[in-house]
């Protein structure tokens, strides 16, 4: 399915609708098969022991599923997360970015479902996995 | 099961282990049946449309499950979230705090399981529900 | 919200739409606050060690969420499960029925969300918890 | 990681530990990257409308995660599911087998995490996705 945004267009769109997280996330790759986003390494997200916090990992998975959905349906600000299940599997590496590999599994009229694997940059094994459902508003 | 912390002790403990979120959360009630925590209404967590963001709701559910577990096992900084499933059911009300009602369903040797309902303060219907598993480190 | 079925009506409805599981489940209580259903103790569902199998527990949680939804919206055969997260927390007791305590948390136009706790009859601690989302077909 | 079973050995093991489901499942492929299992098309699992039931899909995902774990750790009958989240995304095709593609994402000392995609045989799009955590008993 053709994408409705280029990476620079999506980046500008995110900055506009989520100004409070501007600069926190980047898009490395966005095509029909795979979206790769990164959470820039940032002291504010650290937990005891120096790892990225669970909420920061959730945020990255959530924004990746949002971008994977938006990329196909075009800008619809009222699209919202309805469900997420996330497994935290390994301690993220300190001092590197966190990468999300997101694949859209379903795009229906009312819902999208996205699978996400999270990696510490440069490490082969995922630190977390997540699946997210977004609710897509009916066309007006 | 007797609790290992009073509310002031738990608040001081959270400030120590999570200094980056100091002042973000409060504990309204903490006893063997129910824990009630609040996320103070704060502009930084807003999404388009003025609602509390999904990641902020996840954070509140996560810290509530952490506190519910810690309250029983005592301070163990290496206790980490291994799994969460969360349903976002209604739009949170603007301008009020978000409350988490957390109930510990299981405390095993290696895992705890907590159910959480999230409410906009003053509203009867939950805005979200979550269940979280924490992994408890083996005793040294 | 007023219920659209009595217990005998719901039992007859389940027998009609799910004839392959006739007699497997019973309804102990069905009102606006709480639905209690039971899975009759039955050798076919046993796992190694004599416990009820995970799939049988899933089935009970699934049918309980279905009944909790149907009870409010009336018979709509195309209502389907879209999502379930389930935690298996304790080994069910051998030789007794399994009970589901189900509470409907949300009934929207397109989705319902139900929380379920599963108990071995006569035991105070839940053996499992589940949350289920059902998709409700648009009115024709 | 080397596997501890061949396909015939695993099939024999499943028949022994789960005699009540003998013949229900088959293993198409089992190697370090991917496990493919099938649920034989069978009238007993049908829902209204002729689709495979949700509990039958859960069963297939559950046994696939079990086999993916056992294949690596060797026979340990007390290994049990602790958590599953499953999304039902499309109506399964009538009259064909259901296939599970399972990938083990984590094998720790105490837990394994497996991702599963379910397909109607011959169809490119998944009908469901699931993630399952198994608890592995401590070595005696």
TrEMBL record, chains A, B, C, D:
Q: What InterPro entries does this protein map onto?
A: HotDog_dom_sf, PAAI_dom, Thioestr_dom
- Coiled-coil annotated spans: none
Give the molecular function GO annotations: hydrolase activity
**Does this entry carry the keyword Hydrolase?**
yes
Q: Which UniProt keywords apply?
A: Hydrolase
Domain of life, source organism: Bacteria
Residue stretches making up the Thioesterase domain: 49-123
| E.C. designation(s) | 3.1.2.-
How would you classify this enzyme at the top EC level?
hydrolase
Question: What is this protein's name?
Answer: PaaI family thioesterase
- Where does this protein come from, organism-wise? Mesobacterium hydrothermale
